[in-house]
């Protein structure tokens, strides 16, 4: 049974990507920390008669991530992963809380690395796999009051570009998407974006990603 594994699939872009990419896989595995959010996405997919599998997971936990890959790859033929889960905290550098700095680096950077590292041996064994990393335009250039978030996204870009080189000539395809602001729960709890009405819907962005996911390894969607 072919399956796609998506992190942060309970809300925002992750949910929209789950609905968009479901067309190509028999099963969509939905990962994130909050099971109730994942169940909401599962419900939407089930209405489209898609098979779903909800897997509560904190991608910051190396052991839990590796256990997830072992379990899921024993159950499904996981052919693709989307590293979408992310966290942002904004403000001038000196105002950022220690906990927020850890959350950004641990979730955006280490989480993406852990998930990729855990699934890669299975992709190599089956000689097939796709890795899509959700970055941001914050992975393309620096931004005011986004220093650590931008640093985390530059790291994911560097990780992605290196893996593209490392896996060249194999049937494992690595790519990243770089998009501007979207209207998602990402912005709840901070006032970095003053006018959210200008942000695009995650559904529209997910459709654009899927449309541009044509073999290129850099999908750029500027707002
Ligand atoms: N919104 C924007 O303007 C924007 C623009 C460019 C790029 N992005 C990127 O797009 C991606 C999706 O963000 P979004 O806008 O859709 O925001 P979102 O709705 O807040 O989604 C983030 C998801 O990640 C999950 N998550 C966070 N920490 C996690 C962890 N440690 N383990 C597993 N799951 C975790 C959250 O669920 P739980 O809390 O339940 O775990 C949530 O479902 C992120 O990588 C973000 O950096 C966003």
Automatic annotation (TrEMBL):
CDD domains: SDR_c (cd05233). SUPFAM superfamilies: NAD(P)-binding Rossmann-fold domains. Keywords: Oxidoreductase. It comes from the Bacteria. The keyword Amino-acid biosynthesis does not apply. The keyword Oxidoreductase applies. PANTHER family: OXIDOREDUCTASE SADH-RELATED, RETINOL DEHYDROGENASE-RELATED. This is Short-subunit dehydrogenase. It comes from Aeribacillus alveayuensis.
